[in-house]
Amino acid sequence: MTNALPPLHNGHAPFTLQELFREALYAFEEWDAELTEPIVTFEGRVVPISQVFEAMRQCDDIVPMNIVGAVTERLTKPWEGEGPLDQMSFSTAARVMGVLVRKRLLANGVPEIAAVAEQTAERHSDS
């Protein structure tokens, strides 16, 4: 499967990917009790929010403060940024959000469902 998202350039994300990160964060905020992971769209493609967060894991760009607040309010421990301005990189924010998505999916039992579907597909391909 090829990644439908634009690549980073020397640790920097294109503006469109930064905006998509913001959309994925909002989608996470609105994620209620559904079992399925929220999605966002990019250039007409449907993308799970975890894929957006994964695409930003190596991004060195600084997160705007309004996004920092949206990420840190979900943490169970206080967060302290690096440097005098308490800045957070998209890499840090993406890693935090990726963990939160996985935790939510585990709480909803989705990985078990995916594992069963994967095993069923493997059995059919072995036949």
Automatic annotation (TrEMBL):
What is the name listed in the Swiss-Prot or TrEMBL entry for this protein?
Uncharacterized protein
Where does this protein come from, organism-wise? Rhizobium grahamii CCGE 502
